[in-house]
Amino acid sequence: MTTQDRPVVCVSYLAAAELWSVPKFPAPNHGAEILTTEESIAADGPMTAAVLAALDVPTLLVANRIGNDDVGERVGRWLQQHQVPSTAVVSTDVTTPKIVVVADGRDTRTWFAHLLGITDELSHSDLSPIATASMVYLDAYRLIETAALRVVRAARDCGTELLVNLGGSPLSDALRIELAGYRNLIIQTNVDDESRSAVPEVTKQLLTETSARWVVVTAGAYGASAASRERIVTTPAFRVQVRHTHCAGAAFSGGLLYGLRYGMSIERSLLLATASGALRCVRHQNAPLPTLLELESVIASLARTSSN
């Protein structure tokens, strides 16, 4: 198996997602009208795998089981639709995990998760595919940290390049210890738009606490940056009409992994990532994920705008 034939292995939990839009969050003991509802997937790992599949990158999603229920059937259809191979199997012993994400007109997002048994499921997942992976993507949320630590150990044992997505959470002591000295590492995290001024400090801290080659931080409408110990690369956000932001960070990760996997510069990889995140925000949940040609078109439009 050549390097280009080896898949990017994405490890995360797999759940059905419902997206609700409300005008504003209600006060305690009050309600709010739901303006729209959409169905999607969670967490970031499954969407990252789907983005890579749309870019014709071999990929594999390592995730928990799903139930033999209506919600599980919907999740299974989503995986088939996006041609995402997965270790997730259907079982009568579990109920399909679910998450509800509520967004209001003030760009506030709150989520409610029903993920009973997820950590235990992932802690017993088969990690042998990591041995033949070209790269590994890992959602290292606090919610599933015990399972995530196991993935870090497996990737280190194989010397595989690892992208750890913190999802905006601080680096925990347990994860910092597990990542200590691991140089074949990229860390991705995010800050809210209003906290964009914190990006340099977040970057500096993660570079200090780990041996990561790159720390990548996204800041919504204010673009993204990638920092090593020698330099910092930034890219602006593409100006688009945002329809939603669900899994925009995952789409960004997919574009970033694509560029890095094919040996592109960090500048080019960051552009692909930002274009992928932007197109995720403008499309309906059931719309096809972008092709490489579409990402290149978005990048070209930025170049034309900059030259005017």
Automatic annotation (TrEMBL):
> Which residues are in the Carbohydrate kinase PfkB domain?
62-285
Show the Pfam families listed in the entry. Answer: PfkB (PF00294)
Kindly state which keywords UniProt assigns to this record, in alphabetical order. Answer: Kinase, Transferase
Give this protein's Gene Ontology molecular function annotations: kinase activity
Name of the featured protein: Carbohydrate kinase family protein
